[in-house]
Amino acid sequence: MTEARGSAGLHGETYPPGTPCWVSLMVHGMAATQDFYGALFGWEFRPGPQQLGPYVRALLDGHEVAGIGQLPSDRHLPIAWTPYLASADVDKTAAMVRHCGGTVGVGPLDAADAGRMAIASDSSGAVFGIWQAAAHLGTAVAGVPGTPAWNELFTRDAIGVAKFYETVFGHEEESLAAADVDYVTLRVEGRPVAGIHGVGRSLPRDRGPHWLTSFEVADTDEAVTRVTDLGGHLLKPARDTPHGRVATVADPEGAVFSLIHTQGRTEGRTGR
């Protein structure tokens, strides 16, 4: 998972197209959300582009790791972390999204001198972002507590949706060879960059197909306690997996994410 992002974007280089390069959260209470994640991950914040309203970038030891923006008071959209996939030309990628049965809800538009962006949904309805880097390349540090560790799409049918991402971004697909598991790993230049988990009828009706971001922590159980102490909620208790110890939680506004201690593992992984 740490290796999934490789060195691209982390040492002043642009992320290869199709690689998750940034995560962003739109909320109603900016100040309270910053307090929550600042206490949980040790993030500090500074202003970012304001094209879609008030927006800050989260920094870890001076390195940009995520974004938080404010929803208009009259917009009652689901509160969720959204991964952004890198693109060399966001306008062409947005056109391909539409061609492959997805929709483009925002943009493409310029985010000041940071880059050009769009927010889209795939053929199953899961929302994701598209980022064409300029001054802002994306997440600047990885593999340490407080950084995005993995992005996984939960949908009804992994194989069908994987074809969408393969066509739009050029991902290579690797299906898990297990009769009872519908899982596809998306790869870029041979590296695992994201996962697609087909869960059929187990997909939550109140959420539908959605991306889930996992954040690295030093101690999963301690981080869960911190989440609940800060007003968040535990959704799935901490459990050991082949990829590390994982728990699923929600922040006070309901944004769902996972906490994972990868124990030095670097291969692509899932939140199962």
TrEMBL record:
Pfam families recorded: Glyoxalase_6 (PF18029)
PROSITE patterns: VOC
Sequence ranges assigned to domain VOC in this UniProt record: 147-262
InterPro entries the UniProt entry points to: Anthracycline_SecMetBiosynth (IPR052164), Glyas_Bleomycin-R_OHBP_Dase (IPR029068), Glyoxalase_6 (IPR041581), VOC_core (IPR037523)
Name of the molecule in the record: VOC family protein
Species: Streptomyces acidicola
